[in-house]
Amino acid sequence: MLELAKLRNFLEQPRHIVITTHHKPDGDAMGSSLGLYNYLIQQGHHVKVITPTDYPDFLSWMPGNGEVIIYTDNVQQSAELVAAAELIFCLDFNTLSRINELGELVRTSHALKVMIDHHLEPEDFDDYRHWDIKACASAQLVYDFIVNQLHHKELIDKDVATCLYTGIMTDSASFKLPNTTSSVHRIVADLIDLGANNATIHDQVYSNISEERLRFTGYCISNKLEVFHEFNTSLITVNKSELEHYHVETGDTEGIVNYGLSIEGVKLTAFIVERKGKVKLSLRSKGEFPANEICKKYFNGGGHRNAAGGESTDSLAEVIEKFKSILPTYKKLLMQ
Predict the structure, then answer these.
(1) What is residue 36's predicted lDDT score, i.e. its pLDDT?
(2) Using CA atoms, how far apart are residues 239 and 234, in angstroms rounded to an integer?
(3) Strands (DSSP E) found in 92-134
(4) Quick check: 277 pLDDT over 90?
(5) Which fold, 211-334?
(6) Average of pLDDT values for 144-159?
(7) According to the 3-state scheme, what is the secondary structure of 89-131?
(8) Distance between CA atoms of 222 and 319, rounded to whole angstroms?
(9) What's the CATH fold of domain 4-206?
(10) How far is residue 130's CA from residue 115's CA, in Å, rounded to a whole number?
(11) Is the pTM of this model over 0.85?
């Protein structure tokens, strides 16, 4: 592993830098990436953020978003930028499979690779790692990286603060998950003092949705919600035709899984959606219930204990049945 002192020295000169994050980036992925971008450009570095895929429109307002390159729309340009990079920051993911085709470009690149992440079981592709599974967001770790490792708190301006606040807010479910510690609140307070407008950020992310997205959410809750009281579990499922009927776009299913967990007594909830060629699962849980164990063991996925995801090439009906068949195995934990 590269020593921190050597990384600091390396960054003292302007470098060609690429920042990338996982496919279908969420608020933490884009917040941490653009926060780091806005920090690095202040030092004269040549920086590009490359995302493997598109991402929700409700994240496109963040400072620096206009400079983001979407790999699937700009394959050749992305490949050239990765090939020319001296340093690649890998944010909010810890295995190269999470960035799809971009992963092999990063793997074979001669650039130094820095991972900043909070997920379990990192792959050893990086030269320097700032990693903590107890962190509530990668944006929290980017803040710590800038302030406590690079000692550049003075470079956290309004743009940096805005992006990092967004990342922490979204990945902590608006500061209500168990890993939103007092330290996280102190960081968030600091970001507000440094220019992040918490009310405006909240409105941009949560109060700026399309009418069709709202109607789709209502449809899911009214028509697709199942509750299994004998397992303290809820489930929402959506098929391709329903996505097409409501003209669902990237990001429109964000947060739907959380509604099932808001039901009194429910400890585990799942959102299962049929996509092109595969079925995706999002699980959320309360307390000590290991949602990530179910995703890793049964659905080729993983994540955090209370927030995890997976996928399957089986049919939607088969995945739904498989999920339901797993519940008796975990009944004791679910009913505690």
Answers:
(1) 98
(2) 17
(3) 112-117, 128-131
(4) no
(5) Diaminopimelate Epimerase; Chain A, domain 1 (3.10.310)
(6) 98
(7) EEECCCCHHHHCCHHHHHHHCCCEEEEEECCCCCCCCCCEEEE
(8) 22
(9) inorganic pyrophosphatase (n-terminal core) (3.90.1640)
(10) 6
(11) yes
